[in-house]
Design goal:
alpha+beta; Rossmann fold; Serine Threonine Protein Phosphatase 5, Tetratricopeptide repeat; 4 domains; six-stranded mixed β-sheet; five-stranded antiparallel β-sheet; 21 helices; elongated
Amino acid sequence: MQFLFTDHLLDTDRRELSREQVPISVEPQVFDLVVHLMENRDRVVTKDELIDKIWHGRSVSESTLTSRINAARRAVGDSGADQALIRTIARKGFRFVGEVETRPGHSVPAEPTAQNGEFHAALALPDRPAIAVLPFTNMSGDRDQEYFSDGISEDIITALSRLRWFFVIARNSSFVYKGRAVHIGEIARDLGVRYVLEGSVRRSGERVRISAQLNDTSSGSHLWAERYDRDLADVFAVQDEITEAIVAAIEPKLYAAESFRAQQKPPGSLDAWDLVMRALSHYWRITPQDNLAAQTLLEKAIAIDPAYGKALGLLATSHISGAHMGWASMTTAVPVAERAALAAVEADREDAWAHHGLAYTYLFQRRFDDAVAEFELALRLNPNFALGHAFYGVTLCYSGRWQDGDAAARRALRLSPRDPFAAIFCGVAAYAQFIGRNYQEAIRLARESLRLRSDFVGAHRVLAAAAGMSGDRLLAATALAGLHRAQPNISLAWITKELPMKRAADREHYLEGLRRAGMR
């Protein structure tokens, strides 16, 4: 049996209490107490009855009973002062007084289920990460609001379907489970998926709260959970914003889970997809050694599948990133990246990573308009590509459009605030503010970037230049020392030669900041 009350769900079959799809840790004894009060909510439950049912007649002190009632209240979001759900009836006992909606439970079968006399075996997992988005539960208590929760689910399915490297179950299959209490393990077997997204929607007055949780059914673990509270000034804009945020958060979590899975496989069993997942896990670490390791893995993936657009695009990106960080020569990196990027687009014109690699290569060839066009194409193919937004921001800044660059970087941060590249997103925003001569904001953002990644070269560069221009000599000296540790080969000549700034005035401004910081 399932009991829905306020924003909670109590499932007696799974022995699970959750709040907006996020499980709540509850002691077994406290869970049993809540269930008994819930099942007998039409009457007062006496203390003697609780002792008999929960403690099986053992002697229990008044303080023990009180502590368990208080724990039950905390579990359901109540308190002894409010008693909005579990009420103490003086000299009689306790009663659950909240509004409750019940649904039938559904136990998970040990074997494949029989329907119409036939047994249906579990579907084989596809060769891509497979995900099902369940209909979000309407917790509003108003069935007229079903359209809103259904709309959120459908929009997430549509948006995830744009991510071509994921296998997304169609809406009509996912919505078969609407209003049914089915264990996600059974859903995973029925639909042939490894990942299941579930959530809830609660509208109250002019506010909406949406919770979502991504589950890995193979391990039973929760990969990600988040809650969004918004005003309903424009209901459809809110729906779009939350959908976008959920999809952007899911993408890196799925990649991270697949990377971990690939790392557990013996080397001889790795296919092209596994190699790319391993390469991404190295690329995200943003170190010279990991960048080289990523390139080696990507080359192996391309040897297996020469037309693997994502692998080729990521290889191009990796080579340019390494040179941009000062870890490699741009003279060597650009030709290698260009070959990989052109091959990526030729192999798969619909892959965002392919166009991202080509755009980044064009930037360092000083083909600014072509770079902007390719980034915009990549973002049309995948509007939730946070890394793409950030590097688009870099390109706009180098092209002299710092306000647009700042907006792109902040969009990346909003889309994926816990991204492995969040330090880079902050660093891009810091550089944009430096170009706009907002030095204190540039310093703040650069420091935030370095808080996330103390070795991020780009943030060290901006911090030193902004401190130099602001006249803070102590900070400038400290920042320059940090920059030299992060990039020993840095110099004014390196900046002039390697960084593709379209406007001479922007280059001179950057050089002047670094000169004032003490760079030669």
